[in-house]
Hints:
Blueprint: H1 2-13, E1 17-22, H2 29-40, H3 48-52, H4 54-58, E2 69-76, H5 97-116, E3 120-123, H6 131-137, E4 142-143, E5 149-150, E6 158-165, H7 185-189, H8 207-213, H9 234-237, H10 267-270, H11 273-280, H12 289-301
Antiparallel strand pairs: 1-2, 2-6, 3-6, 4-5
Helix pairs in contact: 1-5
The structure holds cobalamin and iron/sulfur cluster (2 copies).
Amino acid sequence: xxxxxxxxxxxxxxFDAVGIASLLGFPPSPAxxxxxxxxxxxxxxGMGWMARTLDVRLSPDRLLPGAASAVIVALTYGRRRVNPxxxxxxxxxxxxxxxxxxxxxxxxxxxxxxxxxxxxxxxxDSAPVLExxxxxxxxxxxxxxxxxxxxxxxxxxxxxxxVLTDLVLVPDDPFPYDWCGSCDRCVRAxxxxxxxxxxxxxxxxxxxxxxIEYRGDTFPEGVDxxxxxxxxxxxxxxxxxTSKTPERANPHLRAKEDRFVNLSPExxxxxxxxxxxERFAGxxxxxxGLRGIRRNVNHLRGRAP
Length: 305
Ligand code: B12
Ligand code: SF4
Ligand code: SF4
């Protein structure tokens, strides 16, 4: 069976979870409406590309003509906090997942082309694809109130990637449960009230947006990052399903974690660009760059950059 061989191959590459979704009628209308509302209400903050790429997000065949299926994979970044003095989100102290997924998925595509033919388009936070919606359709988990895809086996601390293909594959069953139940810990714990009732997040209020994606030199009046200098883990840390997440990240994501040990936020203020690059190349910190991280640290200290 093609589907079984695909899953075995991807598990053999080391992915923690694998599932297949059909692109027929994708995205289903509730997801479509949720995304349209999110855009209309300006929840994307300064990420104008989220609005500009809306059409592509709603039609995966714009990325791969004839796309019929999506194979979705996940890697866990683990529960371990390398340096509790540094409020840098856990995933960012691992290897840059964009690169890791790409490398592994390229190997998959080479193998699949040889075995089954077909065309493939690789993504992991690198193209306008509704990754969480595809992951829940592929049976990997449910969308929690914190808007994270939560795996019943790995919790919310997973990163996603996958391939679109024109192969018509038998899909997995969509994940059938909502195992948030009456819990609302994340909604209550989010320091900025960014989590909306429809399980989406208002980026205008999300610390992760301000500390990673925002490009200005200083923050507008009223922005509080609550001590975070890159990303934010509050809504995943408080989630009871995080107890399912293994302590250590998937081996593919394990970086030289010692580079984060014995580091204080102030060290970023004195570090030069070369040292920063040497030390953090290949980690997600490069997205904000030294300039962005310095701005975040300065903001905490109430100093101008
Ligand atoms: C833009 C973006 C952000 C923005 C906006 C966040 C947001 N929640 O929208 C900012 C910068 C704030 C951000 C922050 C983070 N991000 Co981000 N981000 C993205 C990105 C590029 C697009 C997300 C998007 O389209 N948002 C718009 C909303 C409307 O779409 P959505 O959240 O996907 O929700 C859809 C479905 O989930 C579904 N849905 C929503 N509710 C419900 C309810 C039900 C019942 C059902 C069935 C479906 C459903 O409908 C929605 C619309 O179709 C994705 C990568 C990608 N291409 O998908 C990564 C991604 C979502 N981010 C990721 C991560 C890890 C984070 C952070 C944890 C990083 C950190 N530690 O700081 C935080 C978490 C914040 C949070 N609670 O979501 C991972 C999430 C993995 C996971 N397990 O879910 C992704 C998938 C990247 C990846 N490849 O792994 N992110
Ligand atoms: S990442 Fe932080 S600020 Fe953003 S929704 Fe989660 S708890 Fe709130
Ligand atoms: S904290 Fe509770 S409500 Fe929030 S995502 Fe986790 S289980 Fe769901």
